């Protein structure tokens, strides 16, 4: 039994070490992005959105995605709190992911659940847009 607990603890520490460190405040994310010279990934979600949960459980846990997102400050915003979204256009659905510059210029938008391959394509588009 002790071996099982040790193995589970080790597995959890590995998973948490390779996961995204989410901000919950857009203002904090923007300040951090300016200091670290990064862009921002905003995930707009809802508590009862099964596709949002699926994104967190699959695409956003993929090691390639985590590595690529090291160049971004990830922030989660809840669609159910309209105050958090006042500086952006209306969100058509969740999950919606916005890649933005610290100036709030939108670089790329992802609507709905996407798998790793497609997510990496959006990241590439955002990276190219940030160079313009």
Q: State the helicity in percent bands.
A: 40-55%
Main sheet, how many strands, which sense, barrel? 4 strands, mixed
The helix tally amounts to: 5
Radius of gyration: 16 Å
What is the name of the CATH class? Alpha Beta
CATH homologous superfamily title: Glutaredoxin
**Looking across the biggest beta sheet, what order are the strands in?**
2-1-3-4
Shape: globular
Which whole number gives the mean pLDDT? 86
> Which parts are unreliable, with pLDDT below 50 for 5 consecutive residues or more?
4-17
Report how far apart the termini are.
57 Å
Domain count: 1
Order of helical and strand elements: HHEHHEEEH
| Shape-level CATH architecture | 3-Layer(aba) Sandwich
């Amino acid at each position: 039994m002790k071996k099982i607990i040790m193995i589970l603890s080790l597995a959890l520490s590995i998973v948490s070490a390779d996961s995204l460190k989410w901000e919950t405040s857009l203002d904090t994310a923007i300040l951090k992005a300016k200091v670290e010279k990064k862009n921002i990934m905003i995930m707009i979600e809802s508590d009862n959105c099964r596709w949002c949960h699926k994104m967190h459980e699959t695409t956003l846990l993929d090691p390639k995605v985590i590595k690529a997102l090291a160049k971004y400050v990830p922030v989660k915003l809840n669609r159910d709190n309209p105050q958090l979204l006042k500086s952006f256009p209306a969100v058509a659905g969740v999950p919606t992911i916005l890649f933005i510059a610290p100036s709030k210029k939108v670089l790329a938008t992802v609507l709905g659940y996407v798998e790793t391959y497609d997510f990496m394509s959006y990241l590439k588009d955002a990276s190219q847009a940030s160079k313009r």
